[in-house]
Amino acid sequence: MTCQAAQVVDSLVHTGRIDRESVGAVQKDSGLWAMHRNALRQAVCRHCAFLAEDCDFQSDCPSDDLEPCGGFIVLAFLKEYGLIDERAMEEVQ
Predict the structure, then answer these.
(1) Buried b or exposed e, range 60-76, using 16+ CB within 10 angstroms
(2) What is the average pLDDT score of the chain?
(3) Which single residue of 49, 63, 78, 90 has CA 20 to 30 Å from 16?
(4) How far apart are CA 44 and CA 38, in angstroms?
(5) 19-61 pLDDT, tens per residue?
(6) What is the pLDDT of residue 48?
(7) Domain extents for the chain?
(8) pTM surpassing 0.85?
(9) DSSP states of 5-64 as a string?
(10) Cα–chain center distance at 3
């Protein structure tokens, strides 16, 4: 079982909306996570089976050292660089 964000990334690749080869290496950037947190929560995370009990990152009071799931990291990167938007993420779910 994978998180919703990972499923969305997989769907974006399989539908040709993003080309894995052209994206390059995704860098971890907590600033991007914070910047896109609410948008990704609404577009993706609210549909995730892990949100209610297993997702500390999207909890009401997360600690500062928590990292999101890998799918969230990739989606925040893609969103920041204009490779996807909320509509694209919602359409592949």
Answers:
(1) eeeeeeeebbebbbbbb
(2) 90
(3) 49
(4) 10
(5) 888 788 888 999 999 999 999 999 999 999 998 888 888 877 7
(6) 93
(7) 4-17+27-91
(8) yes
(9) HHHHHHHHHHTTSS-HHHH-PPPP-HHHHHHHHHHHHHHTGGG-TTTTTT-STTSSS--T
(10) 9
